[in-house]
Amino acid sequence: MGQLITTILSVILLILVQIGCVQIHTVFQMKNELLDVSFATTKFISNRGARSEADVTQAVEQFIKEEVKRKPYQLKDTDIVFSIKRSYAQDQALWSHADEFRLQMGLAIPALSQLFLTDKPLIYAHRQGTINAMDYDL
Question: Origin, by domain of life (predicted)?
Answer without folding.
Answer: Bacteria
